[in-house]
Every structure is written in C-alpha cells, then in structure tokens.
Amino acid sequence: MSDELGTLYRDVIVDHGNHPRNHRALGDEAVSAEGINPLCGDEITVYLRLDGDRIAEATFESQSCAISTASASLMTEALIGKTRSEALDLFDDVRSMLTCTTPIVDETSRIGKLRALSGVSAYPTRVKCATLPWHTFREALDADRCATISAESTK
Description:
Elements: H1 3-18, E1 31-37, E2 42-51, E3 54-63, H2 66-79, H3 84-99, H4 124-153
Helix pairs in contact: 1-2, 2-4, 3-4
C-alpha cells in the first residue's frame, strides 16, 4: 500500500472513530444484538430496521475503541439500502479482508470505503475490534430472521 493511500485510509478511520455516523439506538420496530470483546472490553449494540428484505436503517451504540467505533460507523453506512443477501455478501468480504491471509476481496469488489479497515489485518489483536460490529450485525440479522419465522409459524 502506498504511503498516500495508507494516510487516506488512516484519515477515514480517525474521522469515523471521532465522529461516528448512525451512533444511536432505534425504536421498538428494530431488531438488535449485543456484542462484547472480552479481551479489550469493547461493547456494542447493533440495531436494524428492515423493510421487507431490505435494510432500511442500521445504527449502533457502543463503548469501544476507535477501531471498533470506526468499523461500526462504516458498516452502518454501507448496510443501509442493502438486501439481506447483499449485506451477508458484504459481511463475508469484510471478514475475508480482515482475517484471511489471501483475502477474496479484489479491487472491483463491492467493499468501497470499507477498504479503509484493511490495514487492521496487520495487527491481529485489533482484528477482533474491527470485526466485532460485523459479527454483532450478523446476529441482529439472524434475530430478525428467527422472529419472522416464529411469527409466520403462529399464523
């Protein structure tokens, strides 16, 4: 990675860490999940409001480090408007980018601004900070799916 590109990515992380987007709870119509990283004490709650199969809103609340906060902020921006399937594909791309020795993400992928998180992969102890919001998002999406299945089975 060039120094100029590294600086740009670092600036994105700092901006989202200091000024997180979508950092708030959602009302009763939202599904949510809580995530905790016991190694560093990061805590996050991810809220999703779905409109059919599409994520209409994604927000979070956290007591977490700058990396986890920036990851959650970038994540919520990226998820809004995505279908469940598109969001899960994005989850896989980000997880691959952060945890795989040879990530499946390429320059033409849908990852966009989330590439700013790629430098975290060089610091194994920080990878859990960056992935915590994503795993928590996945749990919230699963909670919505389970609630939908349960509601349909009682009809």
